[in-house]
Amino acid sequence: MHKIITGGLLIAAMALTSISVQAGESAPLLGEAEAVRAQELSPLAYKAAKDAYTQNNTAEADKYAQQAITNSLTMSKNFPKLIESRDRMRASGTANVRRDLTERAEEAFARVVAEVESGDIRRARKESEQAKLLTYQAEVVAAREQLTRPIARAIAEARKEGGKTYAPASFAKASDGLKKVDRLVSSNPAARGQLYNESRNSIESARTSQQIAGLGKQLKKKPANVEAWVNSRNSDMETIALALKLNLDNTASPGERVKLITEAIGQMRSNYDLQLADARQQIDTLQGNLSELDDTRSSLGQARYKLQIKREAEAKIAQLAKLFDPSQVELFLTTDADVIIRMKSIHFPSGSAIIPSESYDLLELASKAIDLFGDRAVRVEGHTDSMGNDEYNQNLSERRATTVKEYLDARFSNNKRTITSIGFGENKPIANNEKAEGRSKNRRIDIVLLAPVMEAPADAGQQTDM
């Protein structure tokens, strides 16, 4: 008898669980609340909504869910810098460095949230001052651990190998980079793009110094290795020369060989430019022959020009395809000859514009792609799914696009690249927002390399007075 009752209770519990799941799945307001981070920004109202849905009390649940949405949007509107600072703190792994400081910052943040949920914005603003200070301190600590200490370790290893003696320029560059990053961490830990680029460059300089020192020690210990090193270098140059269909004189000095290779590459570029100039001249000739048909001339010229640009872009995309994992990045060529680098694997924290640490390597690959298209302006586009209201999603997409733009600005600070950003919110989906898989695809960053515009003929727009 006991087994039968137990079995009956189990079946009833399973039935209630099924009802709860169905209620949750059919609770759009709860999904909206989660999209605006109500679990963190309005935990009391969110929990009350979830509990009410579990009890199949839809009216009560909707009321609490709507309150959670309102509270979360109030937090996002009034304390955006505090939320972003906390997100950076969490993304930097501060808890692994200073758990005590992290806990104090989280407690201060929770007090701000509690005041917003109680409806006391004035009190929340007062509490936010302490929360901002603590999260800022935690950010600085985490940034030093994540970005400064790796440079210091790399420099220490280089010094141990004798990098300061054998490669003083690279060693000095790494040391200067360490000082620069440390100053920037203290003054502006939010400049993550610049910090990551400076840190990476400094570590590379330290490792270069270490490698050169290792080679120097080997050659000093075994002078006979100098010959093997020279032969290896000559072999590398011969491989490059073979690809350029260039015969190198074996009696030529290394400097002369480098000069010959450089000149051959320059000649290839010159020939390429001549071919491009010839194609453009043909376009101009075609335009001239059709001078009486302005509309036709313009459309044919544009079509010919776009075809040329597309062919060039297709060749470069074929090169880039080897760099990227298609599960992380997709490359597209539009009908307007724009190239789209779709960053599928930048997984921003929910409702945040903070780039996860693991995504910076992917952005560096994207930077190499941008390098290949040196004549194109860059536009960073942010997109979200449809969860959350329009204003929230629009703002979020703009902030995410701006964050990526700031990284690229720092990466190309010496190149004077034209880089802009724009957010489209939920307005340009590429998949069905009704399904989780589709929403995941819609949350994306597109880096668009804009096709150069064909220059108008010198006499374009001129009219003859009658």
TrEMBL record:
Entry annotated with the keyword Flavoprotein: no
Every OmpA-like domain range: 335-453
Signal sequence, renumbered to the chain: 1-23
GO cellular component terms, A-Z: cell outer membrane
Main location group: membrane
Coiled-coil intervals: 269-296
Protein's UniProt keywords contain Coiled coil: yes
Domain of life of the native organism: Bacteria
InterPro entries, alphabetized: Bact_OuterMem_StrucFunc, OMP_bac, OmpA-like, OmpA-like_sf
Subcellular location: Cell outer membrane
Pfam families to which the protein is assigned, alphabetical: OmpA
Keywords, sorted A to Z: Cell outer membrane, Coiled coil, Membrane, Signal
Record protein name field: Outer membrane protein and related peptidoglycan-associated (Lipo)protein
